[in-house]
Give the backbone structure.
Amino acid sequence: MTAAEMKLAEQLLIDSGVSVQELMRRAGQGAAQMIWRIAADMPTLVLCGPGNNGGDGYVIAQWLLEKRVDVSIAAPLEPTTEAAQHAKSQWRGKTVILADAQPAAQFVDCLFGTGLTRAVGDQWFTHFSRLFAGAKRRIAIDLPSGVESDHGELLNDIPAFDTCIALGAYKPSHFLEPARSKMGDLVGIDIAITAESDLGLLTKPRISTPTSQEQKYSRGLVAIVAGAMPGAAQLTAMAAQKSGAGYVKIFAPAGFVAPHPSIVVETVQDMAELQHKLSDKRISAIVLGPGLGRDDRARELLTTALAANAPLLLDADALTVAGSQFTDLVKGRSAETIATPHAGEFSGLMPDALHHKLEDSRKLAGQAGCSILLKGSDTVIVSPDGKASISAQSCPWLSTAGSGDVLSGIIASRLATGISGYKAACEGQWLHSRAGQLAGPAFTPEMLIDQLPATLQECL
């Protein structure tokens, strides 16, 4: 949940009769139990801010104290909220002012949590850094102090924690970079939040096996339009084939060589011929962009593909060629459209972006009327109506040439089954990340493709 969604969800609980003090008790005691499991006997310093995150810290410290942990609190100010004041009144241990606090083996950060919008002041942050550096284990409660909740931004140059304990619900910044790299192990504490959000984590898809009535066309014909660099289209075709498509074709200039005999290559002489071939009603999905090039012919290919009635996936050079005209080019299409840019390509599609990955993706998807998959170690997928998923499943070895071409083929194979663009992008992203994990370190795109059947098997 975003900070605003979390505030609303908590208010719904309060309106139902649950007090703020009770919510704080649930959050604090749940976090304390997790800390106890991690390091039961480690001397602990809890840094408590003046707001409700600090109140959680008082509850945590008191619970640990009752478990005979050597625990103390450092606080720069007295609590300013009623719930935090109540939590402090229940604290029976030692409290020191921030400037006088000495490091302990375990440091628990309850200075600020969800809702922080500006940097922690230098005076407080200097002591925060000193106490952090003197600890052997560091735990952040809800979010590390200095992290903005919704966009993954670092408001301070914070160090990396060992563990972050999310309260009530995960926040976008738990999974968005650069904040995600500061979290360490991420765990969640349930405080009975029941409100729903349009934002979720990507989960393993459930994919059906073909029925006895299926044939190659009903399982999906994927058509890939090749451009100046044939290798990229070949990888896309191979990936589409190994992730479930019933039939894969490549429309290419003369001389293009098929990567396998089972992948059909049809020569295209001009745009009129391509337009005719793309009008085949048996085509279930079209891919344009991998290895396309950026010349005048690439622009003609883009125009022709956009005019087709089949679902369309745009990637790589197709997005660069579209540039800032992307919204106008795509928004009139009646069929599903998916765009899969990386950060550099996205900036060309949306020059006025705020560099808030989730918010920017939602804005572009709504304006263009298509699904957006913004690639990265923190991939975000959004639908035209604003529903969004963040991929928490990452594989750093996917940062290699050709990996994006493989992703295009996987998504196209899912899109060809007739599901929505958003769902196809979600399923394709999960399969891509999982294949990377199975491939091991330092794989080639071909090795990644070889893992797709096993990855698909996990989802059946």
Notes: The chain has two domains: 3-197, 221-458. The longest helix spans residues 20-38.
